[in-house]
């Protein structure tokens, strides 16, 4: 932990074709809880990494600078940055003035820097901090600046690029209500159209039948494509008939701790409760996260305690249908096609369905900059408009899944039918566009979610597994190595 000093020596920076000589940067002086100069290590990672830096008085391992830190953003040329681990530094006695910091040519928007070593000196205390290891690559030097709306827009743009988003929205004003948002929607988006509704039913029925035909006819090397199509079609079928009350509870409790039944971050107490559970959580929220809805299905959808007394009877009917299929449908499939047929026609499409349900849900509900709130802090308008993500997928997926990706109007009002969700979203973009979080499905977005957004933290939103338990986080380290980092 580093405590405030009144002054720091400015860093000499030699830039290609021009040199900044010991510029007396007043911005380097600590102000309003900002006592530091930050030199983030790249370490092979160009993106923002696991946790969010907020307090301004300590260094978090591979953390990120928050847009608002004691009411001042932390920037270098508008770039969001990583933070040094305090373990990389050791205090030493007075030695010499800071050495030059060499800046290389920018690489895809980030400055590559080299140091050997960087020394920081306090004016009151005659102590220096010097890097105690060999030279490493760093990305940039950060210092506090006075915020402005233009600066905030540039910061969010760079943050969005780092996370894999198209846009990170501004904070919604506190005085905006959910009713005000709903009132801006055209009445047409609430209208029921029987023709469009039956078109959705026929789309799902035809696509599922086509998927089963492809599975029956495809050679072994084309089966993965047939399973992918059929799993997506099954997802669309389930969306037509998923009317359980559990869903509407999720609609009204988005990003609400404990109450949001669709998705919850890992609780720190649960993570620390036992070594076995910790390993299971690391694998579940790491490499198996695209199938984590299976665990959610098992824990939530078979428990009558999750429902109100007046809903229990409907839930029992739903569960009876599930068990009837298991008792009748499974034996018939195995009798006609064998165990291999059960795997081909049921298990693989079922896994495809859970891939999409997990992916849709975690993308909608999870981002490093979107906090979960307690019931005391929760605001309906902010949660439904500002606290979720709109993500565009390949068009055929959106068609087969009935616009489930158009998530924001879906939460603004569950009265909007699926075929009107795109029109509702366009209206929201026109009236509230600057507050929306939007993305196009990409590798960097998935990599951010699967390697960063892990354990809930009130101040940082999320703390990554490899910060809390690096010895158990090999699956996350593996994902960082193998998952592409491009949007």
TrEMBL record:
The keyword Oxidoreductase applies. GO terms for cellular component: membrane. The chain crosses the membrane at residues 226-248, 315-333. Keywords: Lipid metabolism, Membrane, Oxidoreductase, Transmembrane, Transmembrane helix. Its main location: membrane. It is found in: Membrane. Residues 260-436 form the Fatty acid desaturase domain. One of its GO terms (molecular function) is oxidoreductase activity. GO terms for biological process: lipid metabolic process. It comes from the Eukaryota. Belongs to the fatty acid desaturase type 1 family. This is Fatty acid desaturase domain-containing protein.
């Amino acid at each position: 932990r580093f405590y405030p000093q009144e002054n720091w020596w400015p860093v000499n920076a030699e830039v290609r074709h021009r040199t900044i000589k010991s510029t007396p940067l007043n911005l380097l002086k600590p102000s309003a809880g900002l006592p530091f100069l930050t030199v983030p290590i790249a370490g092979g990672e160009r993106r923002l990494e696991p946790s969010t830096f907020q307090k301004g008085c300590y260094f978090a391992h591979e953390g990120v600078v928050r847009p608002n830190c004691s009411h001042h953003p932390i920037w270098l040329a508008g770039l969001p940055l990583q933070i040094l681990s305090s373990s990389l530094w050791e205090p030493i006695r007075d030695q010499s003035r800071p050495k030059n910091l060499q800046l290389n040519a920018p690489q895809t928007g980030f400055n590559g820097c080299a140091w050997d070593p960087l020394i920081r000196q306090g004016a009151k205390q005659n102590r220096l901090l010097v890097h105690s290891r060999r030279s490493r690559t760093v990305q940039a030097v950060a210092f506090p600046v006075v915020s402005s709306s233009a600066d905030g827009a540039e910061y969010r743009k760079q943050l969005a690029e780092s996370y894999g988003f198209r846009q990170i929205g501004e904070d919604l004003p506190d005085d905006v209500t959910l009713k005000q948002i709903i009132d801006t929607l055209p009445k047409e988006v609430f209208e029921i159209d029987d023709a469009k509704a039956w078109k959705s039913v026929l789309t799902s029925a035809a696509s599922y039948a086509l998927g089963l035909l492809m599975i029956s006819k495809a050679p072994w090397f084309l089966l993965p494509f047939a399973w992918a199509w059929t799993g997506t079609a099954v997802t669309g079928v389930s969306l037509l008939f998923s009317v359980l009350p559990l869903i509407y509870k999720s609609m009204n409790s988005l990003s609400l701790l404990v109450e949001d039944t669709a998705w919850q971050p890992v609780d720190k107490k649960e993570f620390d409760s036992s070594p076995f559970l910790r390993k299971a959580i690391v694998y579940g929220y790491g490499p198996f996260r695209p199938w984590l809805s299976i665990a959610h299905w098992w824990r939530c959808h078979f428990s009558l305690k999750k429902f109100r007394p007046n809903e229990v009877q409907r839930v029992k009917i739903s569960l009876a249908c599930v068990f009837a299929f298991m008792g009748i449908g499974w034996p018939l499939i195995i009798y006609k096609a064998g165990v291999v047929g059960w795997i081909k026609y049921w298990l693989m499409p079922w896994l495809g369905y859970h891939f999409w349900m997990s992916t849709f849900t975690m993308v909608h509900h999870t981002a490093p900059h979107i906090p979960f709130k307690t019931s005391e802090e929760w605001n309906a308008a902010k949660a439904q408009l500002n606290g979720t993500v709109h993500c565009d997928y390949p068009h055929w997926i959106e068609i087969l899944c009935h616009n489930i990706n158009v998530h924001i109007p879906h939460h603004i009002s569950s009265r909007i039918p699926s075929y009107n969700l795109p029109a509702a979203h366009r209206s929201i973009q026109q009236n509230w566009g600057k507050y929306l979080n939007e993305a196009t499905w990409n590798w960097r977005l998935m990599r951010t979610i699967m390697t960063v957004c892990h354990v809930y933290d009130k101040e940082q939103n999320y703390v990554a597994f490899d910060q809390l338990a690096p010895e158990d986080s090999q699956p996350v380290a593996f994902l960082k190595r193998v998952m592409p980092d491009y949007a």
